[in-house]
Amino acid sequence: MKLFDWLPFGRVAEISPETLNEQLKDVQIVDVRTPGEFQQSRIQGALNLPITQFSKKAISELSLDQGIPVVTVCLSAHRSIPATRRLKQLGYDVKQLQGGMKAWWNRSYPVVSGQAGV
Q: 34-62 burial, b for 16+ CB within 10 Å, e for fewer?
């Protein structure tokens, strides 16, 4: 990726919290926040890959299905911008959650907490 691709500025494709809530069973969610943020509150089924570890190898270890759309999530839709760009470069149909987890929480949509798989 080029340096510009890592900047948390600019526009990428987005999905609204309302649309994501309706389509939760039809997408894969990649949460790029820190493990602590992820454990505190996340969307059910989300996978955690912090943006600081967003390498091609780490992405491949998520075992994402290229035939299923991906939604990237962070706190306020800034860290997810470079993640969205990177996944798009790797051939995924990807959008970021508009407004991030803050927008999700503001609508009181469901979340889970604790360690994943517990």
A: beebbbeebbeebbbbbbeebeeeebeee
Helix (H, G, I), strand (E, B) or coil at 49: coil
CATH number at residue 84: 3.40.250.10
User: How many domains does the chain fold into?
Assistant: 1
For 78-105, the pLDDT digits (tens) are 999 999 999 999 999 999 999 999 999 9
3-state secondary structure of 35: helix
Q: CB neighbours of 71 closer than 8 A, spacing ≥ 6?
A: 15, 20, 27, 28, 29, 30, 94, 95, 96, 97
Q: What is the pTM of this model?
A: 0.90
User: Cα–Cα distance between 102 and 3 in angstroms, integer?
Assistant: 27
> Which SS3 state, helix, strand or coil, does residue 51 take?
helix
**What is the identity of the amino acid at 10?**
G
pLDDT at 6: 53
Q: What is the span of the domain harbouring residue 25? A: 3-106
